[in-house]
Write a structure and sequence with these properties.
About 25% of the residues lie in helices and about 25% in strands. It is an alpha+beta fold and about 260 residues long. It folds into two domains: about 150 residues, 2-Layer Sandwich (60s Ribosomal Protein L30, Chain: A); about 80 residues, CofE-like domain (CofE-like fold), CATH 3.90.1660.10. A five-stranded mixed sheet has the order 1-12-2-8-9. Strands 4-5-6 form a three-stranded antiparallel sheet, covered by helices on one side. It has a two-stranded antiparallel ribbon with strand order 3-7.
């Protein structure tokens, strides 16, 4: 009996990635950074990009001083001990509030997933106005579109078929801590359906569907770090599934089959 060769998945953070400003051309910046890191894109490669890079380039930074607070936001802020201006932004970015407690509001985001505080964050957001500045960052308006535009530009430059994955850090039901998950992607399978495939002993799999982009997002997030590492882009080689055109909407569970709501 001959053994199969082992699989290899290589993840490399891109060093010297610059601080992104509103209006920056991300494909050009990514291409330049790949060259600095001496990485040539090949068929099947994937670039994983932290959400904040996309949000900053797309001008999704909001100064809290510009926010007008509604009565609904005032009431929810009182219940959750949160800044009413942030609560107003949470409500605007969400379809509905699902749960809340002091310090936390869990919502269904307009993008289709459930997350804390609508993904609004102040960490690693440069306060350009100095100590008086109170800016926060919203999620991209359409992460799938953002990923697609980056992918198409880089494929044109390199002449290779690649995938682009945009990730964020989210909590999970029943577990402490955050992990990286996908919020948008292009050129990748969101779900890999193994139903009908045999296991090691010939049993036909009945329900197994792999959230391949979320597994990759978690691995890339581990490499990026969460504090002052400054490594928001990961180059991936060896993704174990064929690339295809996918959409984030493969991932959210239908409300009718969601037992956690």
């Amino acid at each position: 009996m001959t053994s199969k060769p082992g699989n290899a998945l290589n993840l490399i953070t891109l060093a010297d990635f610059p601080m992104i400003q509103k209006g920056d051309n991300l494909p050009d910046i990514l291409n330049a950074c790949l060259e600095v890191n001496q990485i040539d894109l090949q068929d099947g490669d994937v670039l994983v990009i932290a959400q904040k890079v996309i949000s900053k380039a797309e001008g999704r930074k909001v100064n809290l001083k510009s926010v007008t607070v509604s009565a609904e936001a005032e009431q929810l802020a009182e219940k959750t001990d949160k800044d009413p201006r942030i609560v107003e932004l949470i409500l605007k970015e969400s379809k509905m509030v699902l749960r809340h407690r002091p310090g936390l509001i869990v919502v269904e985001h307009k993008l289709g997933f459930v997350c804390a505080n609508a993904g609004i964050d102040r960490s690693n957001v440069k306060q350009d106005g100095g100590p008086e500045d109170e800016s926060v960052l919203l999620l991209p308006e359409d992460p799938d579109r953002s990923a697609r535009e980056i992918r198409l530009n880089l494929e044109k430059i390199w002449g290779q078929k690649i995938g682009v994955l945009i990730i964020d850090s989210h909590g999970r039901a029943w577990r402490n801590g955050t992990v990286g998950i996908s919020i948008g992607f292009s050129g990748l399978p969101g779900i890999v359906d193994l139903r009908g495939e045999p296991d090691l002993f010939g049993y036909e799999l009945k329900v197994t569907q792999i959230a391949a982009v979320d597994e990759l997002a978690a691995a890339a997030s581990l490499m990026m770090g969460q504090a002052d590492e400054g490594l928001p882009v990961v180059h991936v080689r060896g993704f174990p599934y064929p690339l295809r055109d996918g959409s984030f909407m493969e991932l959210p569970r239908d409300i009718e089959s969601d037992l956690f709501r």
